[in-house]
Predict the 3D structure of the following.
Amino acid sequence: MSSTVYVSGDSSAISLGANRTAAAIVKEAAQRGIAINLVRNGSRGMYWLEPLVEVAVKGQRVAYGAVNSNDVAGLFDADFLNGSSHTLSLGATEEIPYFKNQQRLTFARVGITDPISLDDYIAHDGYRGLKNAIGMSQADVVKHVTDSGLRGRGGAAFPTGIKWNTVLNTPSEQKYIICNADEGDSGTFSDRMIMEGDPFVLIEGMTIAGLAVGATQGYIYLRVEYPHAHKALNAAIDKAYAANYLGENIQGSGKTFHLEVRLGAGAYVCGEETSLMESLEGKRGLVRFKPPLPAISGLFGKPTVVNNVISLASVPVILDKGGDYYRDFGMGRSRGTLPLQLAGNLKHTGLVEIAFGMTLRELLYEYGGGSASGRPIKAVQVGGPLGAFVPESQFDTPLDYEAFAANWTVLGHGGVVAFDDTMNMAKMARYAMEFCAAESCGKCTPCRIGSTRGYEVMDDIINNVDREKNVVLLRSLCDTLLNGSLCALGGMTPYPVLSALNHFPEDFGLTSHTNAA
Amino acid sequence: MTESTTTETVQTIIAELKNKPGALLPILHGVQDTLGYIPADSVPAIAQALSLSRAEVHGVISFYHYFRDTPPGKHTIHLCRAESCQSMGSEKLEAHVKATLGIDYHETTADGQFSLEPVYCLGNCACSPAMQIDHEIYGRVSAESFDATINDLGADA
Ligand SMILES: Cc1cc2nc3c(=O)[nH]c(=O)nc-3n(C[C@H](O)[C@H](O)[C@H](O)COP(=O)(O)O)c2cc1C
Ligand code: SF4
Ligand code: FES
């Protein structure tokens, strides 16, 4: 029997040479006359070990990493196909503490299955949620989602069940499901990992959403920066159509659901749900006034569910195991698990899916292993470019939406970017203003003009031109942005700016005393 | 490509996609995928097919950073400028890239080999600093690995 070897086809693994490693394995096996079956799985999310090579030995996966193409001959010499030891041996993959201590519900299959094999998906509990949903009333499907306590993972943490219920109860001959796959936040890649590593779970989640609210058409709005995810999604969608998991009369249920991927074009603001719908309609991505809510009048004026990739990909396990099962993970009003993304200056960057409640410090040091540079971690930015910089004094905050909000910080999409003490936070604050100016949709004045004014003011502060006067001006600009913006791009840019100013005044050339004003 | 084949290409793309709901972005992607950019003379045809004004089509093209109205070099380098990559030294890398190519963002080298564009996150933040060249993604990019990569690409020019 030929051995099965796994080398990730995840784009970050590829960015570290996984394709070269895979090619070297195929070539070396052929030269030695050994038959192997190579699977390009998703990533296990331990990126410091990529390219990770795994072999199935006696029903268990044994790992080696990081394996570069020039390590491959040595692995064959050491008989890695039988799991023998080698300097790159990591033992059983699932015993690696980083992986073992996680609670993978949404990511249950990522790294395990062949992402675009429907058979593999079904063999690993795939489509059980849809099967249950087909046997239930629409209201009961929505009730499971409501009972699970799932809150939107795209940033605003709005309860998913409540949104679905509004769409269910808004009569219309046409409704839509939109998956927000714009994942524009720096430090985030969980959406990408799901789409590349288990695209069927997103397709299943969207199909359940369609059945639940009575929508027959779905769109995945995917950022153009994700070509590998695009390929994986399209391949999986084709297979789902061929096997009647999409299309008409799905699995004999009498229900219809069609699904199509649409590409964005590099505008961060198009991740905002109303801007996204404008873009899908073929227009400039200008943010819409609310009300009306998208759930009542969304895409092409029809009732529309807009959910993040992770929100939708969490639905199949909820419908498979029940809302209660999911709700039993977590703390307070943050239920279930959150796929956290460790990025930036950390030793062990990657994906950690875990129940809400762990502290940021545990995440950074026990999982992240501290900084990659070996220097002290000065601050972390959680929740993307509109998230606050969190100083060391707040590292004991539990990962929970309310606990973060109480500190004037945001958990958002769960991205965590670490900075060591060589970083200057005034420069980061300037960058936040520059980013807001570059990405503003231009609809409201505070954001359009204020952000440009903001980074000019930041330049003066950095260059010590009327510094104290300009700090006062910066604070007043932030006030205007906070209170006068239509969406969170303008409305939350003050989070990184003011957190940098409040926690690191010395980087702005201020003593804490002068800054207190 | 000659002028008439360009027009033909654009017409084929339009015919194939114009009946989709919200067809404008799919058409613009189709044109840019095929030609590398969206030529100004394709705008009237697109506008006409979708019953839009030229100004509307132009407004959409200019709103999105990804769409370009000038031909790119043979290879397009997208260098990540976002926070995670900054935390791992992307500013230094950026200076090296600009000096090595002798161009700034939104420019193309004189030999037409490379265009340089900024990008705000490639979802490769676990392997910062990151860049994308055409459809390939690169992680933990150093000055040396950048040089090696563009030398390889330059060699198969
Ligand atoms: C400027 C801006 C960018 C956003 N980008 C994203 C994004 O990339 N992905 C996402 O899911 N939500 C993003 N959001 C949040 C969406 O507007 C919306 O809340 C979300 O898609 C709803 O899905 P959820 O309830 O499942 O989180 C963004 C919001 C703003 C203001
Ligand atoms: S805050 Fe900025 S991005 Fe948001 S609607 Fe206003 S101008 Fe547009
Ligand atoms: S910040 Fe550079 S890839 Fe995400």
